[in-house]
Design brief:
- This protein is of the alpha/beta class.
- 28% of the residues lie in helices and 14% in strands.
Length: 615
Amino acid sequence: MAAWCSAESTKPVFVGIYGAVLGGFAVSALFFLLSSFSSLSAPTLPLPAAAIAGANLSAPTLAQAETMYNRPIWKPPPRRARMPSPRAFRLTRDMVAARARDGVIVVTFGNYAFLDFILTWVRHLTDLGVDNLLVGAMDTKLLRELYFRGVPVFDMGSRMVTEDAGWGSPTFHKMGREKVLLINALLPFGYELLMCDTDMVWLKNPLPYLARYPDADLLTSSDQVIPTVTDDSLENWREVTGAFNIGIFHWRPTEPAKRLAKDWKDLVISDDKLWDQNAFNDLVRKKFGQPVQGDDLVYSYDGKLKLGVLPASIFCSGHTYFVQGMYKQLHLEPYAVHTTFQYAGTEGKRHRLREAMLFFDQPSYYDSPGGFLSFKPNIPKSLLLDGAHTVESHFELVNYQLKQIRTALAVASLLKRTLVMPPLWCRLDRMWFGHPGILEGTMTRQPFLCPLDHVFEVHVMLKDLPKEEFGQHIDFREYSFLENPSLPKEVKDSLLEVELCDEHSSRCSAIDEIDKHGTFLLPRNSTEEKLLDLLSSYKDVKIIQFSSMVDAFGGFADAAVEKKFRNRVNRYVGLWCCVEFREIGHIYYDMYWDEKPGWKPHPPETREQDHPPWS
């Protein structure tokens, strides 16, 4: 397929020159070879009920023939259908017209690494009755998958790798430039464009809200963490200090918007290291500050573009949604959440959506072969609520929880079960810079239920670390897993409750039986041998839930096994950031803090000391 247009060209970028370009025959031959087979590489997600019933989705009228452009979403092509020619996936005005509703098109894009994010994004929209959407595929693997799953897709011609693009990497910047080029390709078609990143989800149909501001050339989300309004109106642009975030923004095809898009394109193409969001902010703020009549909008960019800032309380960032819960405190209904302000890359974003039960996983995710292990965390009131919220009290609270999680990971590894992580409580927020504990002016409550990536290296926990050095992989699930409606009833109902007891007590004497309350009694500090012996009879039970993990396990029998386990879980925890007014302000969490007498939560004094405790 043809690549994007050059920086000098102002013609539409999708021109579809196939065959005539050197090497085009080879690409097309490969494409058609692949198209001879149905897409079987990954199972489909469960279809939403509305998609099965067709209740949400606009079907072609009797006067319209059904085509790949207007086919109802989630309706796959006919069985054994061949892949259409590459030309059929070229982005055109006709394609957009077939999918647009009331002059609006909703668009996201990505590569195959984000397939599950894209399917989740589409699923949320179709559940809301929004089907005027298109997905741009940056590689042919994603193109095929979406086509055969019944998702309207076009080819961006990027020929991009199918792996994840880490933040700040050359591939990350390439994806940013592709977004700018895509906006420039779409605006000339004359439709309003709601452009979204794939790492966000829609919780409420945004189109009626956007229609409330018909004079806006551009409505953008932001990284604002301090509320400037307390209702669902646009942010007070005079008080917005956070960067405009281009993960969610709505463009109208006006002349000022088109000029901004072109200047933005020229700017990012001129410097391949320039972050597209920084370039956007620089351009928009060139002339900024003259209010539009009515005061909701502000003239910006060239002094003619009318800009509005979507309220961060309901078009949420990762901070206003997952940390502050701003929409709850203001009694508002959120429209969207964008997984920003997190610390574990793509894996951390996926986990945050799972914690909020907003991610759609494959059925196999909810039925691990070895079953699940969960426990009820024990946290004294004094650790949560007493005293000032300081670095010391924060670490005292988190460390108390780490010790229980460490035990749970050990038990899960022995039983070869997937650990359901407990809710994690924090007293202090985490940032990339020094701060007084929580950001002043925000609505963060203390203590608060903090995302797992505030403390744990989620991306490390998911890695396939070498068994020779780190022992058996320990799978895990989010704390809300057992409450997720997608969890099958047969899994939820297959439950064994385990209660710890004192080994020499009369109640604990019949340890091979379940008591009259249906609870299995397990002696505290059970050895590895005893733990395996007592629970081996229940290997077919899907969920084993401990009443507590305090003193639940007496230790590994094999020193070599324990060493590997320590190597693994030591790397599971990250750092807290940051103490104010320090050159080095972060403090590393330590999974084995309790084995180091006098351990204190202090930042490293020197660069030589600045390393995780295990290194």
